[in-house]
Write a structure and sequence with these properties.
Elements (H helix, E strand, L loop, with lengths): L14 H12 L3 H8 L3 H8 L7 H11 L9 H4 L7
């Protein structure tokens, strides 16, 4: 019998995972990102490992340093547009 994902909720991607993916795609090290954002290296590493929450200021600094829109490093549920009730 084939396995399906029916009944399972989709796994939500976190901002930390999205940022790590952009770092990998662009070949940017965490050390370089810490330098560019003035976020202490140890703090940045903890945040990107999912230990603690990124602040909006940190997200904005990271997006600017990586030259991406902030929406590119936010989970989909933060950026999707809601349908207005008719």
């Amino acid at each position: 019998m084939a396995k399906t994902n029916a009944g399972k909720q989709p796994r939500h991607v976190t901002a930390s995972e999205l940022i790590n993916q952009v770092l990998e795609d662009k070949g940017v090290s965490k050390n370089s990102l810490a330098d560019q954002t003035n976020i202490p290296y140890k703090t940045l590493c903890r945040r990107l490992e999912g230990d603690g929450l990124l602040t909006l200021i940190e997200l904005r600094k990271i997006a600017a340093a990586l030259q991406v829109w902030p929406s590119e490093i936010l989970p989909e549920d933060f950026t999707e547009k809601r349908q207005a009730a008719a």
